[in-house]
Structure formats: structure tokens, C-alpha cells
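Researcher: We're teaching a course module on how sequence relates to structure. For the next exercise, students receive a sequence and then see the predicted structure as C-alpha cells, so they can try to spot secondary structure elements on their own. Here is the exercise chain.
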Amino acid sequence: MPILSLADAVERLQSPYALEEFSPVGGDPILIVDCRRPASISAAPLAVASASLAELACPSVAIVDTTPALPATLLDRFDVVLTSERELAPILAVVARAPLAAMTLVQLLRHNAGLGTHEGLIAESLAYSALQSGPECAAWLAARPPAPPAEVSREPAVAVQRSGYRLDLILNRPARRNALSVEMRDALVEALRLAASDATITEIVLRGNGPAFCAGGDLDEFGTLPDPATAHGVRAIRGPARALAACADRVRAEVHGACVGAGIELPAFARRVVATADAFFQLPEVTMGLVPGAGGTVSIPRRVGRQRAAYLCLSGVRLDAETALAWGLVDEIR
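Model: And here is the predicted structure for the students to work with:
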């Protein structure tokens, strides 16, 4: 994929055909601009380029120096800002694999900026549902091996323990690294609704049993609902993100090991997130032809900003606990 100079990018973004030229449908699936070289560009073209960046039907990436000289009004319009070309490789790989999901991801993050939790979650669910019926998600599902027989366990998917004013919610599928199943989702929603309606519960602690806090959604259940529209209807009323956000000011999430997909999207709503040193964080949904579907396009940007959230989603990289702390994704390492 070509890397444009800032002057070339500004010129191309003036075109009335820019939306088509930078698009996974008939154009380039990503715009990459090297902003490290000085360029004398007047205010009017910069303003047009800034407006175009906000509407592009593909991710836009700026490569800058550690102290960028680019006007903040333009730099803020890019979806991702990097300080090295080396950081491009994982993004290019993901965009090549799922350009429609990458486009939808950045459009959703732009759209959700400044929206309330309810509006953001509805937009996320609608985007997720659209991608569920798309070719990239279908290809990912087709490449997966058949799901094993459903797990039968006598243990609750979420262990609920109350001690005075404190309520502990413990993800309890350790053999599956606490993958978020339908059973776990429903149990979590019910427990959080109980907490939201009981003012005597002043502290809610969310944690997980076993070697991982949560390895994300249960992949064996992906695609099992009858259709994407019904799936959206279920998420709209049974999403744990909404229930968690309703009492977030009382929630402390204690995370460890793998915190993947929902395993960080949900904790990010909490007032405080405490991680162990071995915790790592990853948002791999775009590689599956999807976008985060457990509230991550709302919760993650509120903690790390839109551009870093886009980077995590578009690259699929693992973020270690120290970097997560520096970014504000977690509040403490124990």
C-alpha cells in the first residue's frame, strides 16, 4: 500500500471522488500519510482535508515524529497515529484480511466519539450485526473447525458472593479461560441488575477463576443465533455492557492473564481496573470480520482515546500490563 506525503494526501483529499478512491469497495482500503516532512500548505486545503478524513470509508494512518508539527486539528482527524513505519505491518495485515470490518471499525469509533453509553452501544450492535452477515465473518466461520459438544457443568457460569455491602461476581468457566458464553452473559446481566437496584451494595468486584480473567467471547457459540437482526435484538436488551455501565461507579475489576475481547471491553467500563503483572490485553475482532461487540467501541476509547483504540483493533497486538497502565486502560498493577 503506498505511503503518501502530506502534500500528496492533502491534494487527493480535495477531490470529490476521495470517498471512492479511499474505500475497500473499489479503492484503497487504507490511507497512510507520512507527516514527518515539513510541508507548506495553506489553511483552506488543510481544512478540506481535515473534513475529508472525518468521512473516509477506510482507516487513515498518520506517521509522525515524536513531537509532531502537524496542526492538531488535522492530526486529530486521523484514525491512527504512529511514530514508526514498523508499527504499520500488523495493521496492513489485518486490513488486507478484513477491509470491510476495518472500515466499519473506524467509522464506528468516529461516530461514537462524544455519544452517550446507550447510543454508542446501539451503534456498535448494529455495526456488529451488519458484519455478521458479511463475507469476511463468513470466511472466518467457515475456516473454523466444528464446535465440540456443548460443555456440561454443574458449576454456575458466574459465581455470586455477597458479604455485607460487597458483591463479588466471579467468572467461573476456568476450563474455557472464562470465555463469555450465553449462560455467562445472562448470569452476569442478572447479577448486575440486582446490584443496580440495591443501594446497600456499595462495592462490586468483578474477577475471574482460573488462569485467565476472560479470553473473550465463546467462539464455539459464534454464529449460532438464527440471524443477525435477532442477535442485535438480544444484545439490545441482554448486553452485560449496559448493565455494567449502570453501576460502573461501584465496580472494581480485578483482571489477570488473558484479557481478550470482552475480557477488557467490559472491565474498561468499571470505575477502577486493577491488573496483575501477567495480564495482557487484545482486541482481535477485526481479524474475524467483526468489530468489538461487548461494548469496546464505547469503553476502550473513553480510557485510551479513539486513536489508540483504533490501533488496538486494527493491529490486533497484545498490550502488556505496563503499557496498559501507561495508556490508562488499567489503573493499577498489583
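Model: If you want an answer key for the exercise: The chain has a mean pLDDT of 92. The first strand starts at residue 3 and ends at 5.
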